Amino acid sequence: MEKEEGAFLTISELAGELGLPQHILRYWETRFPRLRPLQRSGNRRYYRPADVALARRIHQLLNVEGFTVKGAQKALEDGEATPTPAAAPACIADTDLLVRLREIRTTLASAIGD
Is the whole-model pTM more than 0.70? Predict the structure, then answer.
């Protein structure tokens, strides 16, 4: 059963979505002060939509972009790590790269053929 957009997520749901063990999310709570899920009886954690977005961004910084924890903390504090629509620039960069690679292939093919 899928939850609606904006619904609170439990720690197991968020950990499953990010592909991380739950203890990593608990660790992040100690290192990133803005990541503060609601805690109910028995210390059950419920992540609000803002917490989910922040956890996704932290995951992006640490596990995709290769930041250290200190680097991710600084990036989040400086506001450099705000989510940006990366699809358009990535497509442009991929297109430029593809054109450049084709030029190199043509150059190499002509050098081998001569």
Answer: no
CB 9 within 8 A of CB 52: yes
Q: What is the Cα–Cα distance from 86 to 90, expressed in whole angstroms? A: 6
Token code pair at residue 44 = 């059950």
Helix (H) or strand (E) holding 39: strand 38-39
pLDDT for res 3: 67
Rounded CA-CA distance 32/59 in Å is 12
Beta strand segments in 9-64, E = 9-10, 38-39, 45-47
**How much is the CA Rg of the chain, to the nearest whole Å?**
21
Determine contact, residues 14/52, Cβ cutoff 8 Å: yes
Q: Rounded distance, CA 99 to CA 101, Å?
A: 5
Whether 38 and 79 have beta carbons less than 8 Å apart is answered as no
Contact 8, 48 (CB under 8 A): yes
72-77-82-86 Cα dihedral, nearest 10 degrees: -40
